[in-house]
Amino acid sequence: MKDAVTNLIKNYDVAGRYFDRNAIDRLKAYFESGTARLAVATMVTANAAAIVRQAGSKLFEEVPELIRPGGNAYTTRRYSACLRDMDYYLRYASYAMVAGDNDVLDERVLQGLRETYNSLGVPIGPTVLGIQIMKDMIKEMALEAGIESANFLDEPFDHMTRELSEIDI
Ligand SMILES: CCC1=C(C)/C(=C/C2=NC(=C\c3[nH]c(/C=C4\NC(=O)[C@H](C)[C@H]4CC)c(C)c3CCC(=O)O)/C(CCC(=O)O)=C2C)NC1=O
After folding, report:
1. Which domain holds residue 41?
2. What ligand 1 atom has the least distance to the C-alpha of 126?
3. For residues 91 and 111, what is the distance between their CA atoms, to the nearest angstrom?
Protein backbone atom coordinates (compact mmCIF):
# COMPACT_ATOMS: atom_id res chain seq x y z
CA MET A 1 0.00 0.00 0.00
CA LYS A 2 1.47 3.32 -1.06
CA ASP A 3 0.79 6.97 -0.39
CA ALA A 4 1.83 10.05 -2.34
CA VAL A 5 5.15 10.28 -0.50
CA THR A 6 6.22 6.64 -0.53
CA ASN A 7 5.16 6.36 -4.16
CA LEU A 8 7.34 9.29 -5.15
CA ILE A 9 10.29 8.05 -3.11
CA LYS A 10 10.01 4.64 -4.70
CA ASN A 11 10.10 6.11 -8.21
CA TYR A 12 13.13 8.29 -7.50
CA ASP A 13 14.93 5.50 -5.66
CA VAL A 14 14.43 3.12 -8.57
CA ALA A 15 16.11 5.73 -10.80
CA GLY A 16 18.77 6.49 -8.13
CA ARG A 17 17.97 10.18 -8.34
CA TYR A 18 17.58 13.02 -5.86
CA PHE A 19 14.22 14.78 -5.85
CA ASP A 20 14.03 17.24 -8.73
CA ARG A 21 11.88 20.31 -9.11
CA ASN A 22 8.90 18.25 -10.24
CA ALA A 23 9.09 15.95 -7.21
CA ILE A 24 9.41 18.88 -4.83
CA ASP A 25 6.40 20.57 -6.40
CA ARG A 26 4.34 17.43 -6.00
CA LEU A 27 5.40 16.98 -2.39
CA LYS A 28 4.61 20.63 -1.68
CA ALA A 29 1.14 20.27 -3.18
CA TYR A 30 0.56 17.15 -1.09
CA PHE A 31 1.61 18.74 2.18
CA GLU A 32 -0.15 22.03 1.45
CA SER A 33 -3.44 20.21 0.90
CA GLY A 34 -2.91 18.07 4.02
CA THR A 35 -5.16 20.07 6.31
CA ALA A 36 -7.99 20.01 3.77
CA ARG A 37 -7.59 16.26 3.23
CA LEU A 38 -7.85 15.62 6.94
CA ALA A 39 -10.83 17.94 7.29
CA VAL A 40 -12.70 16.04 4.57
CA ALA A 41 -11.72 12.65 6.01
CA THR A 42 -13.03 13.80 9.41
CA MET A 43 -16.25 14.98 7.81
CA VAL A 44 -16.71 11.67 5.98
CA THR A 45 -16.03 9.68 9.14
CA ALA A 46 -18.54 11.68 11.16
CA ASN A 47 -21.27 11.39 8.50
CA ALA A 48 -20.55 8.04 6.87
CA ALA A 49 -23.79 6.30 7.84
CA ALA A 50 -25.94 9.22 6.68
CA ILE A 51 -23.99 9.64 3.44
CA VAL A 52 -24.42 5.96 2.56
CA ARG A 53 -28.09 5.95 3.46
CA GLN A 54 -28.89 9.10 1.50
CA ALA A 55 -26.81 8.12 -1.49
CA GLY A 56 -28.54 4.72 -1.48
CA SER A 57 -32.00 6.34 -1.44
CA LYS A 58 -31.02 8.63 -4.29
CA LEU A 59 -29.64 5.73 -6.30
CA PHE A 60 -32.82 3.67 -5.82
CA GLU A 61 -34.90 6.71 -6.72
CA GLU A 62 -32.97 7.14 -9.94
CA VAL A 63 -32.85 3.42 -10.79
CA PRO A 64 -35.97 1.97 -9.10
CA GLU A 65 -35.69 -1.35 -11.00
CA LEU A 66 -32.82 -2.30 -8.68
CA ILE A 67 -35.14 -2.85 -5.72
CA ARG A 68 -38.07 -4.32 -7.63
CA PRO A 69 -38.51 -8.08 -8.01
CA GLY A 70 -35.78 -9.28 -10.34
CA GLY A 71 -33.53 -6.33 -9.47
CA ASN A 72 -30.10 -7.04 -8.09
CA ALA A 73 -30.73 -5.16 -4.82
CA TYR A 74 -34.17 -6.77 -4.32
CA THR A 75 -34.60 -8.67 -1.00
CA THR A 76 -33.34 -7.39 2.31
CA ARG A 77 -30.13 -9.37 2.06
CA ARG A 78 -29.13 -7.92 -1.28
CA TYR A 79 -30.31 -4.42 -0.35
CA SER A 80 -27.99 -4.56 2.67
CA ALA A 81 -25.15 -5.98 0.58
CA CYS A 82 -25.52 -3.05 -1.80
CA LEU A 83 -25.38 -0.44 0.97
CA ARG A 84 -22.49 -2.29 2.56
CA ASP A 85 -20.61 -2.05 -0.75
CA MET A 86 -21.34 1.69 -0.89
CA ASP A 87 -19.93 1.95 2.62
CA TYR A 88 -16.76 0.13 1.48
CA TYR A 89 -16.34 2.60 -1.39
CA LEU A 90 -16.77 5.55 0.92
CA ARG A 91 -14.42 4.29 3.60
CA TYR A 92 -11.67 3.38 1.16
CA ALA A 93 -12.14 6.69 -0.68
CA SER A 94 -11.45 8.46 2.61
CA TYR A 95 -8.23 6.44 3.00
CA ALA A 96 -7.17 7.29 -0.54
CA MET A 97 -7.85 11.00 0.08
CA VAL A 98 -5.56 11.00 3.08
CA ALA A 99 -2.92 8.96 1.24
CA GLY A 100 -3.11 11.17 -1.83
CA ASP A 101 -2.79 7.98 -3.84
CA ASN A 102 -5.19 5.42 -5.27
CA ASP A 103 -3.00 2.43 -4.57
CA VAL A 104 -5.10 1.42 -1.55
CA LEU A 105 -8.15 1.25 -3.81
CA ASP A 106 -6.42 -0.98 -6.35
CA GLU A 107 -5.08 -3.27 -3.68
CA ARG A 108 -8.04 -3.56 -1.31
CA VAL A 109 -11.16 -2.76 -3.29
CA LEU A 110 -10.85 -3.12 -7.03
CA GLN A 111 -8.85 -6.29 -7.39
CA GLY A 112 -11.15 -8.94 -8.82
CA LEU A 113 -14.24 -6.82 -8.15
CA ARG A 114 -15.49 -6.64 -11.72
CA GLU A 115 -15.30 -10.41 -12.00
CA THR A 116 -17.18 -10.85 -8.71
CA TYR A 117 -19.83 -8.39 -9.80
CA ASN A 118 -20.19 -10.00 -13.20
CA SER A 119 -20.58 -13.45 -11.72
CA LEU A 120 -23.26 -12.23 -9.27
CA GLY A 121 -25.04 -10.09 -11.84
CA VAL A 122 -24.36 -6.90 -9.87
CA PRO A 123 -24.83 -4.16 -12.47
CA ILE A 124 -21.78 -1.93 -12.93
CA GLY A 125 -23.60 1.14 -14.30
CA PRO A 126 -25.74 1.75 -11.19
CA THR A 127 -22.80 0.94 -8.92
CA VAL A 128 -20.79 3.66 -10.62
CA LEU A 129 -23.78 6.00 -10.31
CA GLY A 130 -23.86 5.31 -6.56
CA ILE A 131 -20.16 6.14 -6.30
CA GLN A 132 -20.65 9.39 -8.19
CA ILE A 133 -23.64 10.35 -6.02
CA MET A 134 -21.45 9.96 -2.92
CA LYS A 135 -18.73 12.05 -4.57
CA ASP A 136 -21.18 14.87 -5.29
CA MET A 137 -22.55 14.76 -1.75
CA ILE A 138 -19.08 15.01 -0.27
CA LYS A 139 -18.07 17.84 -2.54
CA GLU A 140 -21.16 19.73 -1.49
CA MET A 141 -20.48 19.11 2.20
CA ALA A 142 -16.88 20.21 1.74
CA LEU A 143 -17.99 23.38 -0.01
CA GLU A 144 -20.40 24.15 2.82
CA ALA A 145 -17.54 23.67 5.27
CA GLY A 146 -15.50 26.19 3.28
CA ILE A 147 -13.14 23.65 1.76
CA GLU A 148 -12.27 24.63 -1.75
CA SER A 149 -13.01 21.99 -4.31
CA ALA A 150 -9.84 20.11 -5.13
CA ASN A 151 -8.70 17.16 -7.15
CA PHE A 152 -8.24 15.01 -4.08
CA LEU A 153 -12.03 15.02 -3.57
CA ASP A 154 -12.82 13.67 -7.02
CA GLU A 155 -9.85 11.43 -7.61
CA PRO A 156 -10.69 8.32 -5.51
CA PHE A 157 -14.30 8.20 -6.71
CA ASP A 158 -13.32 8.80 -10.32
CA HIS A 159 -10.60 6.19 -10.08
CA MET A 160 -13.06 3.55 -8.83
CA THR A 161 -15.46 4.58 -11.58
CA ARG A 162 -12.81 4.32 -14.27
CA GLU A 163 -11.51 0.98 -13.05
CA LEU A 164 -14.94 -0.57 -12.58
CA SER A 165 -16.36 0.54 -15.86
CA GLU A 166 -13.15 0.78 -17.87
CA ILE A 167 -14.43 3.96 -19.41
CA ASP A 168 -12.95 7.44 -19.56
CA ILE A 169 -14.76 10.00 -17.46
C1 LIG B 1 -13.64 -3.98 0.73
C2 LIG B 1 -13.67 -4.51 -0.64
C3 LIG B 1 -14.91 -5.33 -0.96
C4 LIG B 1 -15.85 -5.04 -1.90
C5 LIG B 1 -15.92 -3.84 -2.78
C6 LIG B 1 -16.80 -6.14 -1.89
C7 LIG B 1 -17.90 -6.26 -2.74
C8 LIG B 1 -18.80 -7.37 -2.87
N9 LIG B 1 -20.12 -7.17 -3.11
C10 LIG B 1 -20.74 -8.38 -3.15
C11 LIG B 1 -22.13 -8.63 -3.35
C12 LIG B 1 -23.15 -7.70 -3.66
N13 LIG B 1 -23.02 -6.41 -4.03
C14 LIG B 1 -24.24 -5.86 -4.30
C15 LIG B 1 -24.36 -4.48 -4.71
C16 LIG B 1 -25.29 -3.83 -5.52
N17 LIG B 1 -26.36 -4.38 -6.16
C18 LIG B 1 -27.03 -3.45 -6.87
O19 LIG B 1 -28.04 -3.64 -7.55
C20 LIG B 1 -26.43 -2.09 -6.71
C21 LIG B 1 -26.12 -1.46 -8.05
C22 LIG B 1 -25.18 -2.38 -5.88
C23 LIG B 1 -25.04 -1.42 -4.68
C24 LIG B 1 -24.68 -0.05 -5.11
C25 LIG B 1 -25.22 -6.85 -4.04
C26 LIG B 1 -26.72 -6.73 -4.16
C27 LIG B 1 -24.52 -8.03 -3.66
C28 LIG B 1 -25.12 -9.36 -3.31
C29 LIG B 1 -25.34 -10.13 -4.59
C30 LIG B 1 -25.82 -11.54 -4.35
O31 LIG B 1 -25.34 -12.19 -3.41
O32 LIG B 1 -26.67 -11.96 -5.12
C33 LIG B 1 -19.76 -9.41 -2.96
C34 LIG B 1 -20.02 -10.90 -2.95
C35 LIG B 1 -19.93 -11.48 -1.56
C36 LIG B 1 -20.89 -10.85 -0.59
O37 LIG B 1 -22.13 -10.84 -0.86
O38 LIG B 1 -20.43 -10.33 0.41
C39 LIG B 1 -18.54 -8.76 -2.80
C40 LIG B 1 -17.21 -9.44 -2.62
N41 LIG B 1 -16.42 -7.04 -0.92
C42 LIG B 1 -15.27 -6.58 -0.34
O43 LIG B 1 -14.64 -7.14 0.59
Report:
1. 34-165
2. 21
3. 16
